[in-house]
C-alpha cells in the first residue's frame, strides 16, 4: 500500500465505512445489491488494511468489527426494560375469528380492526438496544424478564446494523427493537453437510442450529455461521415520535436499516383468513423455516388500550400450520426388545425429509396401533413429526397398494432369546418371558448406567455389549467387581480407558438412593416415583420390604406401581443383585446415602399440576421433577382435578382448556420464583 497520511486515511476510512454500510443495507435489507461480492470484498479489504495501519481509528461500529474478539466466560444476565412476551397460538379459522371478536369487545370504541400478517420465523428471539444510533446491547429472551447478554455474538450477524441509518428519520436517542435470528434453510443444509464430513454432530433443525450458533461463548464461532435476522417490533424509542401503526413501525425499522419480514396489510379479519390460506403453501418458498403466521392488530393505540396477559398480548396471535406431512414407503417392520421385555415394532422407512430432518424409522408402538392403522410391509404411508420431533405414521395410502404388501405379525418367540412371547390381559404390549433374555439384560444395564440413573461414564451400549459377550457380567451387581485387567481383555480397550471405566463405576457407588431405585429399572418406577420412594423409605431394604399398602401411601404411587415394585422385589434375581450391591459397598444399598434434597413438602403439596410449553432454563422433565420435589403430583392433561396449569413459552392447547374449565394458571415467572425460593437450581445455560 502506498504511504498515506493519517488525515488521508481517516477520510478514506470514513468513506469506505459509509460505502460498505450502504452495500450491506442494499444486500441484507433491500435485497437489491448493486455490486458483485468480489467488488464488495475489495472495499472491505481496503478498510481492514487501513484500520490495521491506524488502529486508533477503529471504532466499535466499523463493519470490520463484526468478526468478534475475545471469549466470554459465560453470558451475563441483564434485566429487560419490559417483559418480553410470547404469542398465544391458534390452530383453526374459528380461533382466528374469535380473536377478532375479542378485540372488538375489548376495545372501548366501535372499531373495524385492520391487521398486518407476517410469517412466524422459526428462529431465536433477540432484543437489541441502540444508544445514540450505535448498537449497545444484544440480549436473548431468557425467561422473559431477564435475558442473556450476547452482544459480541449479535454483532457478528451481518444483517444487524451496527449503526442506525439516519437519512430518513434522524437518530433516536434510545431504541430497543425485537427480532428473530435464524439460519436460512439452504445454509442449514450446507452447515450440516460440512459438519457430517468433519465427523461432527449435526443439528436437528435450523432453529437449533441458530440457537446453538448464537449462544457460543466464542463469537468467532458465531461469526462463522451464516446467521441472518429479521426485525418486527419497536419496543422502546426515544427522541423520535413512536409509530402509531404496525405498518408504520415496520417502515420505520426498514428506514433505520433493519431487515424486516415480508408482511401483508389486511383490511379485515376476512382478508386475514383468506391470505393465511395462501401462505399455507407460499411459506415453503421463503428462505427460512416458518411454522405459522403472526396476526397483529395494526392500530397500536388500540393495541395498547387492550393490553396483554402475563404471557401474551391480546392484540396479536400466532396461527400455527399443522405439521408437514410427506409420503414414504415401509420397507420392513422390525421388533426391538426393551429392558422390561416389551417388544416394540418399528417401521424401517425409505429415508425421507420431513420438518427439517431425514427420517428412516418410526416407532409403531404396539400391535394394536399397526392393526388399527392397517400398516403393512410395502405400504406407502403418510408421515409427519408429532410435536415437530417424533416421526409418526399418520395413515396408509391405500390407493397405492399393489396387493404385494405383507401383513405384520408379532413374533411368537423373542427375536433375542427365543423365549415365548406373551400378551398379558389388559395390556397393549407383547413381552418376552425369557428370564435371561440378552436383549432385556443389555437394555437394563444400559439403563442402570445411564445419566439419570447411576451415571457411569464410559458404560454406553457398545461397552455393555462387549461385557455381556465376554460374559464378564450377568447383572448390574457384577459391574462393581470388574477389574482393570478384565476390561483390558475386551476388544479395542487400552489400559487408560479400562482404568477410567473402573473409576467411574467406583464413583457411582456414591449415588443417592433415588438414583439407585430408578436404576433398578422396575416397571412403572420412573424418576419422579423413585424420588418420592427414596424420600419415604430412606433405605433400600425398607423400600424393598415395603408392602403394597405402604407403597400406595406414598405420593404419586398408584396401585399398579406398588404391585410392580412388590413383584420385582420378591424376585430371586433382584435379591441376588442387591446382595452384590451391598457387598460392593454402594452407599445407597448399605443405607448410608443422604436423603433427597427436598422432603416432598412444599407449595405444591397435595396439588395436581400440569405443565404446558417450555420453562426457561429447564427441560420438561426437570420442571416436573421440581414439582414432585415440592410435594406436587404431575398430570399430563388438564381436567377438573387440576389445581394449577404452569404456563411456559409457546404453550399448547392445554392453556385454552384451562381457560375454558377455569383452572388457575401459574406463569413461568411465578413458577421459577417458587423454585428459586426453595433452592431448586435452574440452569439457564443448557437451553
Ligand atoms: S411478534 C409479544 N412476530 O414467535 C410477542 N413474533 O411466541 C411479539 N416470532 O417468541 C412477537 N416471528 O420470537 C412476532 N413475525 C413475528 C415472529 C415472531 C417469530 C417468534 C417470537 C416469539 C414467538 C412466539
Automatic annotation (TrEMBL):
Its EC number is 6.5.1.2. PROSITE patterns: BRCT, DNA_LIGASE_N1, DNA_LIGASE_N2. Its cofactor is Mg(2+); Mn(2+). NAD(+) binds at residues 37-41, 86-87, 118, 141, 180, 296, 320. The keyword Transcription does not apply. Keywords: DNA damage, DNA repair, DNA replication, Ligase, Magnesium, Manganese, Metal-binding, NAD, Zinc. Zn(2+) binds at residues 414, 417, 437. One of its GO terms (biological process) is DNA repair. GO terms for cellular component: cytosol. It catalyses: NAD(+) + (deoxyribonucleotide)n-3'-hydroxyl + 5'-phospho-(deoxyribonucleotide)m = (deoxyribonucleotide)n+m + AMP + beta-nicotinamide D-nucleotide. PANTHER family: CHROMOSOME TRANSMISSION FIDELITY FACTOR 18, DNA LIGASE. NCBIfam families: dnlj, PRK07956.1. Belongs to the NAD-dependent DNA ligase family. LigA subfamily. This is DNA ligase. It comes from Candidatus Fermentithermobacillus carboniphilus.
Amino acid at each position: 500500500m502506498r504511504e498515506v497520511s493519517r488525515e488521508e486515511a481517516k477520510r478514506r476510512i470514513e468513506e469506505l465505512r459509509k460505502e460498505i454500510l450502504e452495500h450491506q443495507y442494499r444486500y441484507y435489507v433491500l435485497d437489491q445489491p448493486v455490486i458483485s461480492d468480489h467488488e464488495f470484498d475489495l472495499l472491505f479489504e481496503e478498510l481492514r488494511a487501513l484500520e490495521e495501519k491506524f488502529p486508533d481509528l477503529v471504532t466499535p461500529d466499523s463493519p470490520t468489527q463484526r468478526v468478534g474478539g475475545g471469549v466470554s466466560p459465560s453470558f451475563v444476565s441483564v434485566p429487560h426494560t419490559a417483559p418480553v412476551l410470547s404469542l398465544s397460538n391458534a390452530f383453526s379459522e374459528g380461533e382466528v375469528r374469535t380473536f377478532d371478536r375479542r378485540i372488538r369487545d375489548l376495545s372501548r370504541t366501535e372499531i373495524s380492526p385492520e391487521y398486518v400478517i407476517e410469517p412466524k420465523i422459526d428462529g431465536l428471539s433477540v432484543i437489541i438496544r441502540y444508544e445514540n444510533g450505535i448498537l449497545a446491547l444484544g440480549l436473548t429472551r431468557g425467561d422473559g424478564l431477564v435475558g442473556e447478554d450476547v452482544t459480541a455474538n449479535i454483532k457478528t450477524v451481518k444483517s444487524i446494523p451496527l449503526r442506525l441509518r439516519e437519512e430518513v428519520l434522524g437518530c433516536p436517542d434510545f431504541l430497543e427493537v425485537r427480532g428473530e435470528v435464524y439460519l436460512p434453510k439452504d445454509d442449514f443444509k450446507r452447515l450440516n453437510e460440512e459438519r457430517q464430513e468433519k465427523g461432527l454432530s449435526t443439528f436437528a433443525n435450523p432453529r437449533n442450529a441458530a440457537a446453538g450458533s448464537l449462544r457460543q461463548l466464542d463469537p468467532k464461532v458465531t461469526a462463522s455461521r451464516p446467521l441472518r435476522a429479521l426485525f418486527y417490533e419497536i419496543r422502546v424509542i426515544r427522541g423520535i415520535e413512536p409509530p402509531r401503526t404496525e405498518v408504520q413501525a415496520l417502515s420505520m425499522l426498514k428506514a433505520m436499516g433493519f431487515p424486516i419480514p415480508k408482511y401483508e396489510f389486511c383490511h379485515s379479519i376476512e382478508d386475514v383468513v383468506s391470505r393465511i390460506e395462501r401462505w399455507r403453501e407460499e411459506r415453503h418458498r421463503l428462505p427460512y423455516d416458518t411454522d405459522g403466521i403472526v396476526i397483529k392488530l395494526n392500530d397500536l393505540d388500540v393495541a395498547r388500550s387492550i393490553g396483554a396477559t402475563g404471557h401474551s398480548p391480546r392484540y396479536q396471535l400466532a396461527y400455527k400450520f399443522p405439521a408437514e406431512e410427506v409420503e414414504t414407503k415401509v420397507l420392513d417392520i422390525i421388533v426391538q426388545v426393551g429392558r422390561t421385555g416389551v417388544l416394540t415394532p418399528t417401521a424401517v422407512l425409505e429415508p425421507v425429509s420431513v420438518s427439517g430432518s431425514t427420517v428412516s424409522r418410526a416407532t409403531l408402538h404396539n400391535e394394536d396401533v399397526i392393526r388399527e392403522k392397517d400398516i403393512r410391509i410395502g405400504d406407502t404411508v403418510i408421515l409427519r413429526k408429532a410435536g415437530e420431533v417424533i416421526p409418526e405414521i399418520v395413515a396408509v395410502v391405500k390407493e397405492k397398494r399393489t396387493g404385494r404388501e405383507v401383513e405384520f405379525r408379532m413374533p411368537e418367540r423373542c427375536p433375542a432369546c427365543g423365549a415365548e412371547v406373551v400378551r398379558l390381559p389388559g395390556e397393549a404390549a407383547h413381552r418376552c418371558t425369557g428370564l435371561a433374555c440378552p436383549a432385556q439384560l443389555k437394555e437394563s444395564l444400559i439403563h442402570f448406567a445411564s445419566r439419570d440413573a447411576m451415571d457411569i461414564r464410559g458404560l454406553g451400549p457398545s461397552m455393555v455389549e462387549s461385557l455381556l459377550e465376554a460374559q464378564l457380567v450377568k447383572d448390574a451387581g457384577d459391574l462393581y467387581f470388574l477389574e482393570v485387567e478384565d476390561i483390558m481383555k475386551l476388544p479395542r480397550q487400552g489400559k487408560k480407558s479400562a482404568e477410567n471405566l473402573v473409576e467411574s463405576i467406583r464413583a457411582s457407588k456414591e449415588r443417592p438412593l433415588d438414583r439407585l431405585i430408578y436404576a433398578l429399572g422396575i416397571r412403572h418406577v420412573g424418576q419422579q416415583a423413585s424420588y418420592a420412594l427414596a424420600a419415604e423409605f430412606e433405605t433400600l431394604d425398607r423400600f424393598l420390604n415395603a408392602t403394597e399398602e405402604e407403597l400406595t401411601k406414598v405420593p404419586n404411587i398408584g396401585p399398579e406401581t406398588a404391585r410392580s415394585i412388590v413383584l420385582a422385589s420378591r424376585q430371586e434375581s433382584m435379591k441376588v443383585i442387591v446382595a452384590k450391591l451391598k457387598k460392593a459397598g454402594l452407599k445407597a444399598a448399605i443405607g448410608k446415602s443422604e436423603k433427597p434434597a427436598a422432603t416432598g413438602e412444599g407449595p405444591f403439596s397435595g396439588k395436581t399440576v400440569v405443565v404446558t410449553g417450555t420453562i426457561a432454563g429447564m427441560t420438561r422433565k426437570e420442571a416436573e421433577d421440581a414439582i414432585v420435589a415440592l410435594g406436587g403430583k404431575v398430570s399430563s392433561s388438564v381436567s377438573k382435578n387440576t389445581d394449577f396449569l404452569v404456563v411456559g413459552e409457546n404453550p399448547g392447547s392445554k392453556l385454552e382448556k384451562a381457560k375454558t374449565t377455569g383452572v388457575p394458571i401459574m406463569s413461568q415467572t411465578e413458577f421459577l420464583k417458587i423454585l428459586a425460593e426453595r433452592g431448586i437450581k435452574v440452569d439457564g445455560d443448557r437451553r
